[in-house]
Specification:
It contains seven helices and ten strands. It is of the alpha/beta class. The protein is globular, with a radius of gyration of 19 Å. The chain starts with a strand and ends in an 11-residue tail after the last helix.
Length: 257
C-alpha cells in the first residue's frame, strides 16, 4: 500500500537573532511524515526539537526552507494540528468540560456530545464538573489530551507532554497515548529527551544532533503493539539509539538524556 504524506519538511534552517547574538537552532532539516504515523523526535536539550515542532504547528513562521501540511505551506496555527505541551495550561476557573468547550468554535452544534466522547476516550467520564485544582497531574494532562482531540485534528503535536509527571503516571499515560493513537488514527509527532519513551511510542525515531539541530539518523522501530519494555527486542532498539549518543560507552537502560 502506498503511503500518504501529510507533513513535508525540506531544507529547513532556523536562526534566532537577538542584537549581535546569532544562534542557529536548526540546520538543513528534511523529513517526511506519513498519515497515521507516530514519529518520535529525540535529542539533547537545546538541539532545536521543540522549535521544529513549533514550526510544524505554525507557531513560528520565521525560517528558511519549506514546511508543508497536506502539500500546502504552513503559515499559521490550525485546528487540524493540535498541540499538547508539558505545561498543561488548563484554565483554573473553568471546569473540565468547560476547558474542553473553550477550545472549540462557538458554532459547534454537538458540543456536549463531543466533550462526552473525548472524556470517555481519556477515561475521565464522571469528572466533567471538576476543576483543575481537584485533579492529579496525570488527570489534568488527560484533560489537555481530550481538549486537543476535541477539534478532531489530523496531526497531534506532543511537546514533552509527560516530562513533568512521576514515573508511574508517565508510563500509564504513554500506554494511554498509544491506545488513543491506535483507535483515533491520528498522525502523532512526539518531541522527547527520553529514549525509552521514544522507542515505546514511535514507529520511527528521529535522532537529532546537538545544536545546530540536524537529523543524525532515522530509526524504524519494527515492534508490535502492545510493546513490552522488558523484551529483548525492545532493549535492542534502545541500545541502538543509545549508541547514537554515547558511542560504545556502557549506559544503563534506565538512563535518559
Amino acid at each position: 500500500m502506498q503511503k500518504s504524506r501529510i507533513i513535508e519538511i525540506s531544507h529547513l534552517t532556523k536562526v534566532f537573532q537577538g542584537g549581535k547574538k546569532r544562534v542557529e537552532a536548526l540546520e538543513d532539516i528534511s523529513l517526511e511524515i506519513n498519515k497515521g504515523e507516530f514519529v518520535s523526535i529525540i535529542g539533547a536539550s537545546g538541539c532545536g526539537k521543540s522549535t521544529l515542532l513549533r514550526i510544524i504547528g505554525g507557531l513560528d513562521k520565521e525560517y528558511k526552507g519549506k514546511v508543508l501540511f497536506e502539500n500546502k505551506p504552513i503559515t499559521a496555527p490550525s485546528r487540524q494540528r493540535g498541540f499538547i505541551f508539558q505545561d498543561i495550561r488548563l484554565l483554573p476557573w473553568l471546569t473540565v468540560e468547560d476547558n474542553i468547550k473553550f477550545s472549540l468554535p462557538r458554532t459547534t452544534s454537538d458540543i456536549n456530545d463531543i466533550v462526552s466522547k473525548k472524556l470517555e476516550i481519556v477515561n475521565l467520564k464522571g469528572f466533567e464538573k471538576a476543576y483543575p485544582k481537584q485533579l492529579s497531574g496525570g488527570m489534568a494532562q488527560r484533560v489537555a489530551i481530550a481538549r486537543a482531540l476535541a477539534n478532531q485534528p489530523k496531526v497531534l503535536l506532543l511537546d514533552e507532554p509527560f516530562g513533568a509527571l512521576d514515573a508511574i503516571t508517565k508510563i500509564k499515560l504513554q500506554e494511554e497515548m498509544l491506545r488513543i493513537w491506535e483507535s483515533e488514527k491520528i498522525t502523532m509527532i512526539l518531541v522527547t529527551h527520553d529514549i525509552d519513551e521514544a522507542v515505546y511510542l514511535g514507529n520511527r525515531v528521529v535522532v537529532m544532533s546537538n545544536r545546530p539541530g540536524r537529523i543524525q539518523k532515522i530509526h524504524d522501530i519494527k515492534l508490535p503493539n502492545p510493546r513490552s519494555r522488558i523484551s529483548h527486542e525492545f532493549n535492542i532498539q534502545k541500545e541502538i539509539i543509545y549508541k547514537e549518543f554515547f558511542g560504545d560507552i556502557e549506559v544503563p537502560f534506565s538512563y535518559s538524556i
